[in-house]
Each structure stands twice: as C-alpha cells, then as structure tokens.
Design brief:
Elements: E1 8-13, H1 19-26, E2 34-37, H2 47-59, E3 65-68, H3 73-82, E4 88-92, H4 94-101, H5 111-123, E5 128-134, H6 145-164, E6 167-172, E7 175-180, H7 212-218, E8 251-252, E9 282-283, E10 286-287, H8 302-310, H9 324-334, E11 345-351, H10 366-375, H11 379-387, E12 391-396, H12 411-430, E13 435-440, H13 445-457, H14 461-464, H15 477-493, H16 501-525, E14 530-531, H17 535-547, E15 555-556, H18 564-573, H19 589-607, E16 652-653, E17 659-660
Parallel strand pairs: 1-5, 1-6, 2-3, 2-4, 4-5, 11-12, 11-13, 13-14, 14-15
Antiparallel strand pairs: 6-7, 8-12, 9-10, 16-17
Helix pairs in contact: 3-5, 4-6, 5-6, 8-9, 9-19, 10-11, 12-16, 13-15, 13-16, 13-17, 13-18, 16-17, 17-18
Length: 667
C-alpha cells in the first residue's frame, strides 16, 4: 500500500509540485478510501478555481467516497478521530482547512486550540491516514496582515501535524524527499544520470548491462539499481540459478522497413524519453522492489492542455473523438502539450507456462511453438511488429507450478522475476525505446490472471475466466470447468494467506505475471509508457498497485478484446479501452493492430495548424480563378493547343476503329 513503517503520513509540497498525486498514489490500492476535501467552494465567478476542483474530483477512482469539511473546521478532527483501524483517509489539504479556520465567519475561535486538537486526533488515529499540506515556509513574508496570519497559522499547523505523524515527505518538482523517514524504510541513493543509448538490436549479455558502468559510477560504488545478476553481485535466489541471473534475450529487428518519420523532432528537452530512475530503496545486493516505491507520475498539466489544444486545430467535424485520450496520454507521459508519435517501439513477448488445471485444454507445446515462431519473424505478432517498425524481444519466464496444489513460484523466484522484468524495461529505455507493448503466449495464463483478479479485486472466477477454445476453433466447456475448479481450489488454499503483491505473485500469479509486473515498474521508473493487451498485462497492472500506485498511470489499454477479466481489471485500474475490435490473435497483437491508428492521431495533433479563425495561417496559392472574357485566352508564356482540323469531309479515327465526328470530343 505505502512505504512500510508508517501509519500516519504528512505530504508537504509547493503549488503544482505533485504532492497530491504522490499522496493519491500511496493509497491507490486500498479497497476503499475516504477523501476528505477541506477547500471552500470559492467565488462562483472564479472558473479557474472551479476547473481545479473538478480536475481533482475526476482523478479520484469511483470506489472512493468524498467528505466535505469546509463548512466547519472542527469537522476534520471529528472525521479523523472516528475513523477505525480498517479505514483509509486522504485529507487534501490543510491549506484549505486553515483558510476556513481563519474565515471571519468562524470567529471568534481559538485557532491554537483547534490546531492542537487536530494534532491530537492525528496522533491517536487508528486509520491509515495521509494528509496533504502546502509548504509556505520557503516563500517571502507576505506584505498584508491577512497573508501573514495565513502563513503563520499554516506553518504552526504543519509543525504540529508533522510532529504527530509517523513520517513526513516533501515533494519538490515531482521529486519526493523523506524529511521524517518511516521507521522501517531503507536508505535511498541519488538518481543515476541517463546512460548513452545502445543500439536497439544489440543483444545484452550477463554482467554487461548497457548502463552498468555509468550507473555504478554515479552511485559511488553501490550496486546499480538496474544491474541484476552481475558477477560482483551475490545471487538472490538461494541454491541455484534464478531468472535474473540469465542474460537478457536478443532484440529481434523487424523484417519490414519502418515508415519514415512524418513529424519533425521536437525542441530540445520536450518529452524526455529516457529520464533516469527516481531514488529507490537500495541495499548492498542491488534493487529492492517493495511496496510504496517512489516512482514518477505523468504530467497532470500537459495532458489536459494537449486535449484543449485539439479544439483549436484546423480539423473538420468533431475532431479525433475517443482518440483524444491518446493525445492526452502521450502528452502527459512525454511532458509536452504537443506530443510526438511513438517512433521507437519494442514488443516484449512473455512466454511462461502454467502447469496443472490452469492450462486445461491447451495443446502441449503450442506456446513454445508460438515463441519460436516469433523469434523467426513469423506469425501474427511478428508480422504486426514488422509492419509497425517495432523490435521484438521473446522473454522466457519461469514455468509456474500447479497453484491448486501449492505456490506457483518460490519467494526467491518472484524477486528474481520482478528484477528481471525491471531490467528488461531499463534496457529498452537505455536503447531509446519510446513505447513498450506487453504481450504473452503462455499456456494457462488466463486462468492465472483470473486468480489474481479474484484475489485483488474480489472477482468471482467464473465471471472473469474466458471460454476455452481448442485448436479446432471449438468451445471446450469441460476444459473451462477444470480451469475454474483449479482457480477455486487455489483461492481456497490461500484463503488465509496475505494478499500483498509478492504473496499474490508467488501463490497465484506465476512467472509471466511476475515478470510483467517488473516490466511495468521499470517502465514507470524510466517514464516509458506501456500498451497493455490481454489478461497477463492487466493482471500485472493489478499487482503493481501495491508496489507503486503510479504504474497504472503509464499504461494505455487500446482494446479489451471481449475478455471479461480484462474489462474488470480496466475498470479497477481506471483504464478506458479505446476500441472494441475483438481480435483474437494472441495477447499483444491487438495493441499492434491498433498502433497505426494511435500514431495517426498523434501525427495530426502534432502537425495540423490552428484554424484560421483562431490565428492560424490562411490558405495561400489556392485563389479562386478569375472569370475569363468572352473567349478563352491562353497564358502569354504557353503555346496554344487547338483542336486538330479534320483531314477531310469523312470521319477521323483516333487510335481506334470507332469514328469520331467533328463535333465529338475524343476523350
């Protein structure tokens, strides 16, 4: 849920610093959140303030409840004091609360006593509590008495609440620093600088990561976060070779030539494609993937700005329709209001089978054949990748044991798979990849995803497990019932097990979902967006919420594919499918089929000028023709072309046996 070791947390930050988004990400995986809004409604004529409030409301998941406390400052103390141990509260923010506290309508009042009551309620709270507050101590002293009263009251409130909280974080320009670290937190290290891009088709070898040297130097001897399984690092998997100890798979270049770029390169600094990983918990043995990691969020300003800009473009009709979401997503993830089309794309095809009842009805060896086919550049996925100019990486995930009988993976295998997926995303970012497409072809993957959904979203397995289609294209209800029974037995076996992310992956998810989760986390850390397509990717998105709630904001779902599990996961994650193609070409293929359409929307958004009525350029060189005089006149610098005179009184033929009369055109 959040960084281990804290029960109550104060998040400080300046205006537009990202403090609210960071606070929301810490509670994103809670089944129910009470959002306590403290800000007054404001002047009805102030449309900008109304837009801000509406933006905050729209960002909240549908499962959250909102409670307004602006009418009474004492109401906030009552809400916090009444919350139980199973409640999760997010208070945003204390600046609004102080504004109401100082309102003359609530005077006379003992402000100092009210602040002390708030601090006492926070200290004694049994709920999981996150409070957001502006940090005004770094600004100039206001020149007005009212301004000084506000800053003094807010500063005193922040001090009192910070003293009462277990932990305090400061968000500056989207970067989080722990002022009062949680008791169980690990030390952090500075983010490493971007490494030089390696060729996209260069295969990586064990112990020779493209960014290894630069990263190790930047960290002053501490093992790099993106270096896993190097000779100098102890193995995490006890007794044996783990997933992360093997070399990264070769990147396969497409057979087709990618289309030429249609949009000019943006200005320097616009859309940082491969930003460095943010500060992460580190220990001597390398990266620690744990709940509450501090990963970046997309820019919440440039996304809406890009969508608003579409209304000014010179386009007919209603514009881009639902594809406006693509423009907003690309703008937020690239950090610019004029996003560029994704011209460097990599497909990660995860191949990891699930044994036991999860794979009932699957043809033995079929998934391995699909993986070999993709490596050879054949099959639907490889052909679509070639059409899109995308590179392809076939990733072997560990085979998962029958989860109805015992854990699908050991704890060591889960840690190794997570780090391996992270490393795949790091390699892609270092190679200059702008977009990842997550694909999978393992037997039994859909049943494992259904089990993950049942464990994390409370879904009924039969409702989220799709029908089984055999190799003859017929529906196999017997195999479907075996899969449902396996999921039911696995959930019954783990009914008393913890539902933390790594526990779910070990007991139910298996190797492909664990690796996919690592990919999502690593891509989020490097600000690389991901196209999800199918049960494995969406199940990984569900699990990643507990490790880093920011990951879902870097994911786009082009199509639900008609799969009930994908529909449910999309609803929980807040991902709206753009299309309803219902293609059944394997996980990842639908995303690639939709990619040209998504690129077209970004191309139009980036290249079309503003409408002439809004200051755009007027059309030139297409003036209406000037009416001619009584007879046709040829330009002075061109020869006249007259109709040929008939050869004689008879008909004339032109290139055929059909006679053409003098009064008939020959064309």
């Amino acid at each position: 849920m959040s960084v281990d070791g804290w029960h109550t947390l104060l998040v400080l930050g300046g205006i537009r610093s990202g403090k609210s988004e960071f606070a929301e990400s810490l509670v994103a995986d809670a089944p129910m959140v009470r959002y306590v809004a403290t800000a007054p409604a404001g002047d009805p004529e102030d449309t900008e303030w109304a837009i801000r409030l509406a933006s905050h409301r729209a960002r909240r998941p549908g499962s959250w409840t909102t409670e307004e406390t602006a009418t009474d400052p004492g109401r906030l103390v009552e809400v916090i004091a009444a919350a139980g141990p199973h409640d999760t509260l997010l208070v945003d923010d204390l600046g609004g609360w102080v504004t109401v506290l100082l309102d003359p309508a609530h005077q006379p009042a003992d402000d100092t006593a009210t602040v002390a009551e708030l601090a006492a309620a926070v200290r004694g709270s049994e709920a999981r509590l996150v409070l957001v507050s502006p940090e005004v101590g770094l600004s100039l002293v206001p020149t007005t008495p009212l301004g000084r009263a506000f800053t003094d009251a807010l500063g005193a409130t922040n001090r009192a609440v910070a003293d009462a909280c277990d932990a305090v974080a400061l968000v500056v320009a989207g970067q989080t620093a722990w002022l009062k670290p949680p008791a169980a937190s690990l030390p952090t290290v500075p983010a490493h600088p971007p490494a030089a891009h390696a060729p996209a088709d260069a295969p990586a070898t064990a112990g020779a990561h493209p960014a290894g040297a630069a990263t190790a130097a930047a960290m002053g001897g501490v093992h790099a976060a993106n270096t896993v399984g190097t000779p100098s690092e102890p193995r995490h998997a006890a007794g044996g070779r783990g997933v992360a100890d093997v070399a990264l798979p070769e990147v396969l270049t497409p057979a087709a030539t990618p289309p030429p770029a249609t949009t000019p390169a943006g200005p320097a600094g616009a859309g940082d494609w491969a930003a460095p990983t943010m500060a992460l918990p580190m220990i001597a043995t390398g990266l620690v993937i744990q709940p509450g990691m501090e990963l970046p969020m997309p820019d919440d300003y440039t996304g809406p700005q890009a969508v608003d800009r579409l209304a000014t473009l010179d386009v007919p009709g209603a514009g881009l329709g639902v594809l406006e979401q693509v423009v907003g997503f690309a703008a937020a993830t690239q950090g610019t209001s004029t996003p560029r089309p994704w011209d460097t794309v990599r497909v990660l095809l995860l191949h990891g089978d699930h044994e036991g009842g999860a794979s009932a009805g699957a043809v033995a060896g079929e998934s391995a054949r699909r993986a070999r086919q993709a490596r050879a550049g054949r099959g639907a996925l490889a052909r679509l990748a070639a059409e899109n100019g995308a590179s392809l990486q076939v990733v072997e995930a560990p085979t998962s044991a029958p989860f109805e009988d015992g854990p699908a993976l050991t704890d060591e295998q889960v840690d190794a798979a997570l780090r391996y997926g992270w490393r795949l995303a790091e390699q892609a970012a270092d190679a200059g990849v702008h977009l990842l497409v997550l694909a999978a072809c393992g037997a039994g993957a859909e049943a494992a995803a259904a089990a993950v959904l049942a464990a994390t979203a409370g879904a009924e397995p039969p409702a989220v497990l799709g029908r089984v289609v055999n190799d003859q294209g017929e529906i196999d209800d017997n195999a479907w019932m075996v899969r449902c029974a396996a999921v039911r037995d696995a959930l019954h076996r783990t009914r008393r097990s913890p539902r933390e992310a790594k526990d779910v992956l070990a007991e139910l998810g298996g190797g492909d979902i664990a690796t996919a989760t690592g990919v999502l986390l690593g891509a989020t850390a490097r600000r690389v967006p991901v196209l999800l397509d199918g049960p494995v990717g969406t199940a990984a998105g569900m699990v990643s919420r507990d490790l880093a709630g920011q990951a879902r904001h870097w994911c786009l779902l082009p199509d639900h594919g008609g799969r009930p599990g994908v529909r449910l996961a999309a609803d929980v994650l807040g991902l709206t499918p753009l299309l309803d193609l219902r293609l059944d070409l394997g996980e990842g293929a639908t995303a690639l089929a939709a990619l040209p359409l998504l690129r077209s929307a970004l191309t139009l958004a980036a290249t079309l000028p503003a409408h002439p009525t809004l200051g755009g350029e007027q059309d030139e060189g297409f003036a209406e023709p000037t009416p001619a005089g009584p007879g046709p006149a040829a330009p002075a610098d061109e020869p006249d072309f007259a109709e040929p005179e008939p050869a004689g009184p008879g008909p004339t033929t032109i290139g055929s046996d059909e006679p053409v009369s003098p009064g008939r055109r020959a064309d």
